Amino acid sequence: MSVEKNYKDKVTSNDTQCPSCKNSLETHSNEQLQECIFIQLAKINKKNKTFDLESESQSNETPIAGDVTIG
Fold first, then answer.
1. Is residue 24 classed as helix, strand or coil in its secondary structure?
2. Distance between CA atoms of 8 and 29, rounded to whole angstroms?
3. Which 3 state secondary structure label does DSSP give 17?
4. Which of 7, 9, 23, 28 could anchor a disulfide with 32, C-beta 3.0 to 4.6 Å?
5. How many domains does the chain contain in total?
């Protein structure tokens, strides 16, 4: 299945606007779909990266000797 079709299928049948750009889904060209997909993926990746950083900063693990720099 193509990425464009998968993106359209993920949007519910009641949606008439693209969640990314708010333009009509019916008039999206393949190029517009790809651009909107990349925007949505970037948002997801940014959220995941933020989550990873937060979980790492809250870790209670003690660093091992290889991670410690002695100056």
1. strand
2. 12
3. strand
4. 28
5. 1
Whose structure tokens read 């990425």? 3
End-to-end CA distance of the chain: 55
The residue written with tokens 């870790």 in the block is: 59
pLDDT tens, position by position, 19-55: 888 888 888 888 998 999 899 899 888 888 766 665 6
Give residue 62's domain range.
Answer: 3-67
Q: How far apart are CA 42 and CA 48, in angstroms?
A: 10
30's tokens: 């393949």
Residue 35: predicted pLDDT: 92
Locate 39 and state its tokens. 């925007």
Between the alpha carbon of residue 25 and those of residues 13, 15, 36, 44, 56, the distances in Å are: 10, 8, 11, 20, 39
